[in-house]
Specification:
Elements lengths: L5 H13 L2 H4 L2 H7 E8 L5 E3 H9 L10 E11 L2 E10 L2 E12 L2 E12 L8
Parallel strand pairs: 1-6
Antiparallel strand pairs: 1-2, 3-4, 4-5, 5-6
Length: 127
């Protein structure tokens, strides 16, 4: 197995940081990791934009996010400034296939787009 490119490694590092509940609770850190044009389609199907998801994640009255466990993460560098990651997560029995696009900006790699699709069993999943 070959080592990932520096771009893929940077995107993986950013994605893993975003799974950390401490990072998810910090508006300052989220602002540095999420692209200004960030959009997400969550597991519920809801479309989120950068400001609304930061507000939701950092709301002091919101319940603490459950820890997410990631598996099967892989990445492909699509262009000099674009990385696509796919991986699965699990939290409290809810499993989701995830897909992220990371873009290189003047201030580093930032998450541009994310989608999560819940699944129960996937007989076609790669092991």
């Amino acid at each position: 197995m070959t080592e990932p490119s520096p771009a893929v490694a940077a995107a993986v590092e950013g994605e893993l940081r975003l799974l950390d509940p401490v990072v998810r609770a910090s508006a300052d850190v989220l602002t540095t990791l999420l692209h200004p044009d960030f959009r997400e389609i969550g597991t519920s199907g809801r479309l989120w934009e950068r400001d609304t998801i930061i507000a939701m994640l950092t709301d002091p009255d919101a319940p603490s996010p459950d820890p997410l466990t990631a598996s099967r993460m892989r990445g492909d560098q699509l262009a000099a400034d674009l990385v696509h990651l796919t991986f699965d997560t699990e939290s409290k029995g809810l499993r989701s296939h995830r897909s992220s696009l990371w873009r290189l900006t003047g201030s580093g790699w930032r998450l541009y787009f994310h989608q999560a699709t819940p699944f129960i069993d996937d007989p076609f999943a790669e092991v």
